[in-house]
Structure formats: C-alpha cells, structure tokens
Amino acid sequence: MILKKVSLQDDPQLVNVKYEWARELLEQAIANTWFPNEIPLQEDMADWDRMTDEEKQAVTLFMSFFNPQEFRVNQSIAMGMYPYLGSPELVMCLTRQMWEEVNHSLTFEYVMSTIPIDREAAFNAHNDIPEMKAKEDFLLEHVEALRDGKIDPETTEGLQAFVKNIVATNIITEGIFFYSGFMIGLSFRQRGLMKNFGSLIDWVVRDESLHLQFGMNLVLTILEEHPEIATAEFAQEVREMILKSVELETAYNEVLIPKGILGMNCKFVNQYVQFIADRRLEELGFEPEYKVANPAKFMSAASDTVELVNFFEAANTSYEVNG
Ligand code: MN
Ligand code: FE
Q1: 211 CA distance to ligand 2 middle (Å)
Q2: pTM recorded for the entire structure
C-alpha cells in the first residue's frame, strides 16, 4: 500500500520500483534543473523605475505571498507527507521537489535583492494582510492534521486526511493560488515589462506543473488502492475545499489589485481563478462549477500540463498510472 507508518527499517533502495510514474517525474524534474542567476535582471530594473505605484505594489505582494508559501509547501511535505510514504521513489521525488521549492525561494530572494522592492513590506505582508494570511492558514490547517504521525494511514479517516492535505498543498496552493499569481506576474511581460522576471516565472511554472502532476498521481493511486474512501460525502468535502479556495483567492485579489493594473481589473483575474479552479475540479473528476472562458489566453497551453483523470465521479478507465 502506498501509505503506511514509515519505519526507519524500511528498504531505502530503488529496486522493484512500484510507482514508476514517480521515478519518471523525478527524472523529468532533474532534467529541468535551473538557477536564478542564469537570468540577469538589469532591464527589469529599468522597467521598475517607470512602473506605477499599483504595479509595484502588485509585484511586492506577489513576493510576499510566494516567498513564505514555498517554505510552507516544504513543511507540508516534511511533516504531512514523509511520515506516511514508504516507497523510496515517492520520497526521492518529494525530496527533489523540496530542493525546487528552496530554489524558488532563492529566486524571489534574488529578485528582491536586485530590484528595489520594499523588503520589509514584502516580508510582513503575509502576517499583516488578513486576506493573505487566510490562504496560508487554509494550507496549514491541513498540514497540522497530519503532523507528528497523528493519523493512522490504515483507517479511512487517516487516508482521507492525507488526501485532503494533498488537495490543500498540491492542488489548491500550488495549482490554484500559485497559478493566479503566475498569471499576474506574467501579465507584466505581456505589457512589455519585467520580461526577465517573466522568464524566471516560466521556470517556476514548469516546476510547479510537475508538483501538481505528482499530487494528482498520488491522489489517484491512493483512491485506486483504497476505493472505499471515495464516498459521496468525502467527494463533496474535497469539492467544497476547492470552492472555498476560490473565495479566499478572490478576496485576496481585491487587496492585491484594488484599482486594476496593466489593463486588468480584479474581475479579470478572478475569472482566471474560476477558470483554473474548474480545470482542477475536472482533473479530479468533478463537474466544473463556474464554466467561464479563460480570460488570459497566454496562460493556456504553456502552463497546464496535467492530463485529465477521473478520481471521484467516474471510473478510472482511460488513465494508467504506469502508462
Ligand atoms: Mn514552488
Ligand atoms: Fe511546488
């Protein structure tokens, strides 16, 4: 079984790999290796000087959210996932992910130490702005439920708590909150600003799309091994988590861009949030909720690489974990 109480005596070798998809994602992730200082930011510094206060504020709050959340994702992996994952290929894949999250933090650090962003405002915002803190708390609540070996992975409740943490970490934090941020970050490039910063975001997006695939595969595998946990009630709980995250993100975007920037208003950004949330719902096998068009066409092909799978509402016939 994919989840268990991990023992220090478990076989740590990559022999008889059981979850081949995890080893493939690990190899792909390693092939994607990059470092922030490969991209110089001089032109972006010149752009900064001609940006409006609202635009600068949006970049500052972008940093304020991403920088601590990269670390929170790692806490979720270390405290919420490691204690229950016995297969070395899964652990190695997550260890690689943790390096990537650190690399993302160092990337934002690199940007903040190059472009004259108000660091104090950036660092404090995730505690000072209630709408930002609410998103962070949403994630941590689910991590808290798992830490220190609190759940029993041999029970339905334990498995459901584990799945909810994957939904909170991979599917909502990385797959919805982050994509909303990426869309705003990449909008600057669409307007001819901060294009090197945009290249750094492209690399982060490429990493995050693999993290999202890992999370989706993990949910799928748990449900294949334990179909009894996917009750109608549990499916409804998961769906409601996603709808709740859209509310949190919508409220946050009203703080992030109260007046509109770069020809986008808050409604535009929130329509993208609804669009991406529908994608995540469909990937989990749910009916979409919002049924809106993607307002940010530049975000379509490049960033969404997760294949459709049906976890909750249909049989998993068209998708093979080892396919
Ligand atoms: Mn990241
Ligand atoms: Fe990630």
Answers
A1: 5
A2: 0.90
Q: What is the per-residue DSSP string for 71-133?
A: HHHHHIIIIIIGGGB--HHHHHHHHHHHHHHHHHHHHHHHHHHHTT--HHHHHHHHHH-HHHH
| C-alpha 25, offset from chain centre | 16
From 19, 82, 84, 110, active-site residue: 110
| Closest ligand (CA of 96) | 2
pLDDT digits (tens, 9 = 90+) for 253-265: 998 888 888 888 8
**How close is the Cα of 279 to the center of ligand 2, in Å?**
18
pLDDT for 234-288, tens place per residue? 999 999 999 999 999 999 999 888 888 888 888 999 999 999 999 999 989 899 9
For ligand 1, the distance from its centroid to the CA atom of residue 155, given in whole angstroms, is 31
- Using one digit for the tens of pLDDT, what is the confidence trace for 30-53? 999 999 999 999 999 999 999 999
The CATH code belonging to domain 20-29+39-302 is 1.10.620.20
319 catalytic per annotation = no
Backbone φ and ψ for 274, nearest 5 degrees, come out as -65, -40
